[in-house]
């Protein structure tokens, strides 16, 4: 069912699953391209939880999914406020689920406990975005045709400067606006936030958001599940490869089942506590 | 580097390419040092490059500085594996 929720900055859509009463899990997907890569898997997880009697909600965050707010207007503060507002509309007991950098978003919500799949810190997300931009902008990089200038000694500058977000780099960008592809079409007053935006793998991301993400903390999820190729600390490790690395991940029913089983058991444990 | 460690690194690079590029295990098992990657595999776009580097870092417990990467690093399976081995021994 498609529902809506209000937050201080407007109204966004949310998908609802399962019973209207009883425990409910609220899911935070990672931002940008990884949301596309993980949505099908996690919707499948929410459907299985619904069959097990656990309600689910998947809110669109401002500037993500079907939101009417432009991606480059998105801020981390708004994501957190919107997620918390969404959670507050739902009956207790409430639990949050996150995957990858979704763990940056659910920390402020009023939930009984937090579950996270392969949480990605803000510093890690920032580093990957930086790498992606650099690969796209390198003179002979894979994405060189997308806005960069092959052969130009300066073609790596915008990606690096934009993501580092250092004040001196931003000043340099303003002196060289042609180096920042996302700004070329957005110079009208009021259409961009101070500092501009940069296009990374098809998403125009505000430099202010990149700065905020670089310092953002995931807090301490109550349960962390990882996949077996990831050696970092985890409460459980599942034998699957990471779907968020694939441009077109296969539908992985076994992974969805394993995640749904883990979450259902975890919710039961908290309810019994 | 002992042969076991070299073999483990090579296998890790194969697994990363399989997982990130969505290639079959049979296909990556057939990669040799001369197998071209960058420019030869349409799956290897900018996000995939970032994914390959980050997964290699995480799985081998190494740190890759972006300044260390150039156009040749991902040219072939051999060049990528040699790069990873060079990082792993430092």
From TrEMBL, chain A:
Residues 133-148 have a biased composition (Low complexity). InterPro entries: AB_hydrolase_fold (IPR029058). Residues 166-176 have a biased composition (Basic and acidic residues). Residues 122-197 are annotated as: Disordered. This is Uncharacterized protein. The lineage of its organism: Bacteria, Pseudomonadati, Pseudomonadota, Alphaproteobacteria, Sphingomonadales.
UniProtKB/TrEMBL annotation, chain B:
It comes from the Bacteria. It holds the Pfam family PP-binding. InterPro entries: ACP-like_sf, PP-bd_ACP. This is Acyl carrier protein. It comes from Sphingomonas desiccabilis.
């Amino acid at each position: 069912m498609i529902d809506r929720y209000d937050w201080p900055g407007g109204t966004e859509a949310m998908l609802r699953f399962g019973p209207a009463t009883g425990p409910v899990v609220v899911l935070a997907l990672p931002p940008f391209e990884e949301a596309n890569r993980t949505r099908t898997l996690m919707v499948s997880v929410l459907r299985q939880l619904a069959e097990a009697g656990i309600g689910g909600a998947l809110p669109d965050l401002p500037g993500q999914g079907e939101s009417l707010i432009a991606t480059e207007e998105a801020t981390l503060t708004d994501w957190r406020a919107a997620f918390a507002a969404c959670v507050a509309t739902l009956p207790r007991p409430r639990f949050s689920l996150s995957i990858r950098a979704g763990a940056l978003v659910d920390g402020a919500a009023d939930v009984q406990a937090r579950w996270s799949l392969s949480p990605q810190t803000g510093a890690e997300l920032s580093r990957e975005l930086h790498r992606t931009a650099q690969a796209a902008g390198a003179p002979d990089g894979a994405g060189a045709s997308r806005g960069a200038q092959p052969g130009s000694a300066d073609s790596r500058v915008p990606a690096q400067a934009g993501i580092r977000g250092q004040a001196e780099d931003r000043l340099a960008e303003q002196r060289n606006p042609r180096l920042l592809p996302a700004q070329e079409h957005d110079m009208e007053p009021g259409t961009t936030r101070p500092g501009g935006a940069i296009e990374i793998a098809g998403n125009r991301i505000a430099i202010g958001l990149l700065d905020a993400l670089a310092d953002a903390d995931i807090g301490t999820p109550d349960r962390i599940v990882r996949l077996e190729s990831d050696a970092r600390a985890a409460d459980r490790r599942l034998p699957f490869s990471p779907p968020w690395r694939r441009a077109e991940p296969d539908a992985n029913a076994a992974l969805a089942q394993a995640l749904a089983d883990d979450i259902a058991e975890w919710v039961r444990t908290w309810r019994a506590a | 580097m002992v042969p076991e460690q070299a073999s483990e690194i090579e296998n890790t690079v194969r697994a990363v390419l399989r997982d990130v590029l969505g290639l079959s295990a049979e296909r990556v098992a057939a990669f040799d040092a001369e197998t071209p990657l960058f420019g030869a595999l349409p799956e290897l776009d900018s996000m995939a490059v970032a994914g390959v580097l980050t997964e290699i870092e995480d799985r081998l417990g190494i740190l890759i500085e972006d300044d260390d990467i150039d156009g040749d690093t991902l040219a072939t399976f051999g060049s990528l594996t040699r790069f990873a081995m060079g990082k792993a021994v430092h």
